[in-house]
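Fold this sequence, please.
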Amino acid sequence: MSAEATSPGAHSRKRGLPRIDLRRIGRAALLGPATRDRLPDAMGHVADAHRAHYPESDLAVLRKAYVLAEASHRGQYRKSGDPYITHPLAVTLILAELGAETTTLTASLLHDTVEDTDVTLDQVRAEFGDEVCYLVDGVTKLEKVDYGAAAEPETFRKMLVATGNDVRVMSIKLADRLHNMRTLGVMRPEKQARIARVTRDVLIPLAERLGVQALKAELEDLVFAILRPEEYEETRALIEENATAGDALAAISEDVRKVLRDAGVSAEVLVRPRHFVSVHRSRLKRGELRGTDFGRLLVLVGEDADCYAVLGELHTCFTPVISEFKDFIAAPKFNLYQSLHTAVAGPDGAVAEVLIRTHQMHQVAEAGVVALGNPYAAVDVTEPQEGERADPTRPGWLSRLLEWQQATTDSETFWTTLRADLAQEREIAVFRAEGGMLGLPAGATCVDAAYAQHGDAAHGCLGARVNGRLAPLSTVLGDGDTVQLLLAQDTTSGPSPEWLDHAHTPAARIAITGWLAAHPEAVRAPAAAPRAPSAVSAGQRGAANVVVDLPDAAVRLAGCCTPVPPDAVTGFPVSGGAVTVHREECSAVARMRALGRAPVAVSWTDAADCRVTLYAESFGRPRLLADLTEAIATEGAAIVSATVEPPNEQRVRHTYTLQLPDAAGLPGLMRAMRDVPGVYDVSRAQHPAAS
């Protein structure tokens, strides 16, 4: 089956320019320029499409690029038998229709010259300048002779790095792949499937992230036809059977036009057919499709405020489906997309989805970064520059990708990780407590946020506060969450192997794996959290620094609240003739009084030493127990006993019974324990005593 002859997108091209006859263009290309002062006839379609977006553009450089491309490719033919020049012409036409500026079109005409002809990059630079040379170099494949099986992944790595400096590199690559997919029918089935899988796993997600929806939709349909031919044929037959389905939407569109006209809102209302994959997904989601499910209404207005005016009129005059409402104008998608989405029900109950946007938003929604023209116009590219150029269009996902790919030297690992990274379909915005924002894929955790914000310094992350509350590192973040990451001061701290279970982004996984590989002892004997409960005991001492108003009574300080001077205390007789001393605010005091037990007066003696029980709440990390005991010893306190509970969601609770030489040192001791990295709270024992 020839993809060129049976493009799945054909049903949606009833309006607009007809499909270009590439074979006719190819024959015209061989004739060369007709005159010295005008473009060759083969470039007429490109010139018309380009002038529609840039009426004042100078086409001389395009003519010059075409002449070089046609001359260098002369005598070369595609597998379909067409002259090779038809390919760069078709790629350039795709970009021209999307609104690409002259520099991009010049580079697209020349994009295969360095790879497939004797033209060199130095020649391109000398004839067309540094910018065009950079774009051509960015899309030029690496030779299999030099890279072997790693040629394809390393070519994509090269293109992605080049895209980090200039997003137009990927625009040309996407248009190049689209034309190749359109004409893939002449290839062997196994090669068609291989190219389609790479397109599905890498190019289509990149088109989505760059916002080039027009290319993405057609690529999805072409891949669908190759990889799932039976389902594709079912969908094609379904669309043909419902050829008049647009009439239902057309009727609703007339009602919408009348409502907006009566309200004085100037708007253009169009019926927008769904492409094949969109129809297939709707069928899987909804089962049997109705006429209005084969398309959507598109309402185009002049200003942002008009979008909300249209929304108000639609929700007033029709029955809105509230669950379908989304505002991507106030909160744009990470790929520049802006639009209002809603759905309304007509008088007969038929539901129509409606997209509301300005004409400018529509151009960006269709063409993404291509619609931005030349985002580097303010950058002086005539002089060589060190490092990456400032790129106002570089999205967060691309910055993250460029960072983690540097740590992945192995081609196979890079290729696998790239596909996994691009499989993340949605991005969330997470706000930092200290200001700024992090762009993360949906499903990211505090571990991912730590590495996105701090890089390798995140190895010492102890925990986080999400929306002001303490949270384990495994916490999955939501769109709009505020996160504060708590880092250890100890630079030797590192992640535990369990962090890999919570890492969602390649950058985090690569960094954690690298640290664990460099510190095998951490894997063999993990110290991310203390071990099972254990007790450390020293000599027991009595409560000799309190006096009770009950002669010869044995005295003991209550373990539930561990009073120390100068706490306000009271005592209660217990079985065996002893008196237990509690702090006044202890819950046991209220319970004793409720039972009618008479309190005993208690006073502190001049003896300064005392015993106290403290709870330390912390995040698990290596050497935490050692650092805490060292802090306690530095303050001059002796550990009578210590218990460490097993970690729960990476949080650990320590219980220490301590003998202090002077009760006045208790506040300083608690401060010293809180200052230990990883400890977020230290408190006195305060719980009901055992009955």
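The CA atoms of residues 255 and 346 lie 9 Å apart. The longest strand covers residues 610-619.
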